[in-house]
Amino acid sequence: MRVIILILIGLILMPIFWVDAVAEEESESEFVVIPDEAIRLRILADSNSEKDQAEKRMIRDEVNEQITEWVETLTSIDEARATIKQNLPEIEAIVDQNTDDSFSVEFGEVMFPDKVYDRFVYPAGEYEAILITIGEGEGDNWWCVLFPPLCFVEFSDGGAVLEHDEDEEVEQKESEPNEEEKRETAFFIWEWLKNLFNWA
């Protein structure tokens, strides 16, 4: 009788551990790894006014669409780099058509701050990128990876690491168990199973 009970308990617990493993695997698969050899695009808006942010998004869409056409069939970062450098005047023309402010378009090593996207941190550092600065460049920025094309991911949706909203932090802590809670749960289950097997 005890053996049957143990088998039934095992069948009950198996889906729980399986679902947890699948969820963890899916979470890891969503993580977008940026290759070491990559070219980014960073756009700094003039300010955070609705007009300036809308202007930034318009420039983002047109520049991204144009550069994607140039590099989507390329497999070498050297080719991508040469193509972008050769066509910088066209990028400047796109920006000029969409803003009345002064602006600059640079290509080279650009400083990026720490960013959080989903639950993953993209570290600060200097990365090869096109930097478009509109006006004073004091508004929220937007960035993505142009080559290899990863601009379908808006990394800038995450906030800077040290600039989380307090309510957001509380919500995350309440909705996601931390590592200590996970360890306590695992320990409880392990102790319960040991007692169960001792009883059997």
UniProtKB/TrEMBL annotation:
InterPro entries named in the record: Spore_II_R
Protein name: Stage II sporulation protein R
